[in-house]
């Protein structure tokens, strides 16, 4: 009994893992595990030697945990339904179809162009929707048949679609970054700023892999044939339009700089983008023929989602809006974009609200279960056990980061990213903080690592989403009339393996180059380079030494000697000598008369 009482924390943690491996729902596994071991812990308290601090009245803390700032009144988590609603409305608005068609036409003439288009559109969808399921399903439905039609390797096509969809996990406004910021007790805005560069670097690594494969295996990703390029040529026209937008932006910046200061560059860029967008719309509707069809389509299709990205992320990074407010503006912007395309209906709003309610309820129940579990786990000093276990890893800070990332990588085979964030991260954060690790850097590292949970078996949700929309039987292509063979589940899994390797490389790069994340703090100030200058106050006639003049002439310098602070200050007159007090006769008793 004493052994069980003094080792309650590891027993409780292992039993939780077994509960979830058996297949019980995570939220109920957490709550049931916490209540069961609370009952056991109260009974074993006399045998624990002070290792257990549980008593029945402690259960009264649960309602406060549920309704307090940790769950129901948590303003940070309020951003999750906003971003979820925004992503689902954008999925229904047809933005993904337009982006994939247009970017595919733009990159179509080069080998691997469709794969580059999928990566770029995946990054844009990640920065607007933040929902993995919406990105993977949309790109699987639209891009996968086109890739198979023109002879792309099945493994590569499925891998690049699944991997690009998971960019929604690390590129803001990611839902997992919101949860990580809440669990680590840090600002969501700082987490977004820290994750931005790693997200872009990961996108570039995906594109670099496609470039290398197009050189090594050129037949695995052919260019689009000439008859498939329906928008024709016009890259030069697009470059001219881009140059015109830059010129207008610079002119607007010079005009606005005196009045708006640091914000003039953003305002000038906005003016240039709006100008070229209006020109493209006028050129299409009035047939001025100033631009090629390709340039018109790229500008008209790309600028609305970029404007939405600025509306959400730009206002957060500039400090104009909180993440919750940014999510609300994004939801309104998504409704406006769907209405502009004529695809906003009551049915679309109803579906978006239903999906948002399901996801928000899922997150809420896991969080409530996690609060029950943590109440008992902290009562048996589980956080001290975890902290001692992790801080004793060899290698100090780097050893801790490597060990924790290996642990998260393997737990991601069985746990969803929400489950990892609510169960594991609160246990890791105190140890990381004790080692002096910046928690924003730590959170971004975990975010990149948790991204792999969508990509490897047996619970790779991105692979399941792609499997649900990929062809299972041979079908006749409506455009070419050829029979297209289906994609097997094995091909989907093997196609994801290289991209999981790229994500692991990205974890190593983030550990090796922390400045990719730490830039969120701004420039570091060196205290030794600060020059302090005391301004001269006019009218007081202070001498160079800082002392007032004596008899109209400056007082001599002090030659570095400390001033005599036992005497009152002198302002030019010599004070009369103070008479010495007579010595006290201590041989007589004191008189009080």
Strand order of the largest sheet: 1-2
- The number of distinct β-strands equals 2
Average pLDDT: 80
Helix content: 55-70%
Biggest β-sheet, characterized?
2 strands, antiparallel
Structural class: mainly alpha
Concise account of the structure shown:
This protein is an all-alpha fold and 593 residues long. The protein has helices spanning 2-6, 8-22, 26-44, 61-67, 79-92, 95-107, 113-128, 132-149, 154-165, 175-184, 188-216, 235-260, 264-286, 293-317, 323-340, 346-379, 382-391, 396-411, 417-434, 439-450, 461-469, 489-512, 515-518; strands at residues 475-476, 483-484.
What does this entry look like structurally?
The model has no long low-confidence stretch (mean pLDDT 80). The protein has helices at 2-6, 8-22, 26-44, 61-67, 79-92, 95-107, 113-128, 132-149, 154-165, 175-184, 188-216, 235-260, 264-286, 293-317, 323-340, 346-379, 382-391, 396-411, 417-434, 439-450, 461-469, 489-512, 515-518, and strands at residues 475-476, 483-484. α10 (175-184) packs across α11. The chain has 593 residues and is mainly α.
Tag the structure with descriptive keywords:
593 residues, mainly alpha, two-stranded antiparallel ribbon
What does the secondary structure layout of this molecule look like, with pairings?
Blueprint: H1 2-6, H2 8-22, H3 26-44, H4 61-67, H5 79-92, H6 95-107, H7 113-128, H8 132-149, H9 154-165, H10 175-184, H11 188-216, H12 235-260, H13 264-286, H14 293-317, H15 323-340, H16 346-379, H17 382-391, H18 396-411, H19 417-434, H20 439-450, H21 461-469, E1 475-476, E2 483-484, H22 489-512, H23 515-518
